[in-house]
Amino acid sequence: MVAVACAAAGAARAADIIGMPIAILPPEGNLAANVIYWDLDPPVPAANAKFLELYYSVTDRLEVDTISVWPEGSVIDSGTAVNLAYKVCEQIPKARPTVVVGAMNLLGDEDYGLVDNSASPYIVTAYDAVVPKGGPPSLKNPAIRLHLGYGTKEHDDDFFGGVQAQVCPWGGFAILNYQGDPAYMATAIAANPKGLEATLGTKAGSWFARVGYQWDLSK
């Protein structure tokens, strides 16, 4: 499935479109949950879809997650993809990006996927191109992160990625491309409770909304 989420450059699930991997893995013991509504248009054979994403950082380098989907007005059944991501290396400024490898739908759920419902490997990178200096992010002092990856099967045997920015302490935006479709989104970040986010955006001309929360279970 493709569709949704975004955020600010400092947020854990920062430039997340459903199904599009990102090279952002929170510290060990963090659990993130996203609830998403996607209003679908043809040729997708469903009127809308609801999603639940759960991400858990087993270690600082290893993340296990699930993406469950419930399509409405469709002959397609609900499905769940079990996914795995491993951080190969961290970014070194002016030298290399963060690199993550992984695979989607490891168990091959036949009811999950728009392009392919088998295990779909990928490699993805992230690079903090601009880091705020001397204070929180602002329009004149933004945080900008670049994403670039390549994946097979459900990832359409193609490159994907985009740009993500945080332009104030409480929000940001992302412009991404996945499976040949552009996505535009903006995210608000709550000051309290910390870890709460909300996103509105469009993907392939269809709007979506997301609410996400992150817990630190290591404390």
In brief, what are we looking at here?
By secondary structure, the protein is mainly beta.
Describe the overall structure.
By secondary structure, this protein is mainly β. The protein is built from no helices and twelve strands. The chain has a twelve-stranded antiparallel beta barrel with strand order 1-2-3-4-5-6-7-8-9-10-11-12. It is globular, with a radius of gyration of 16 Å. It starts with 29 loop residues before the first strand and ends with a strand.
List strands and helices in order, with pairings:
Blueprint (H helix, E strand, L loop, with lengths): L29 E10 L8 E10 L4 E11 L6 E11 L8 E7 L15 E11 L12 E9 L6 E11 L2 E8 L2 E9 L6 E8 L2 E11 L3
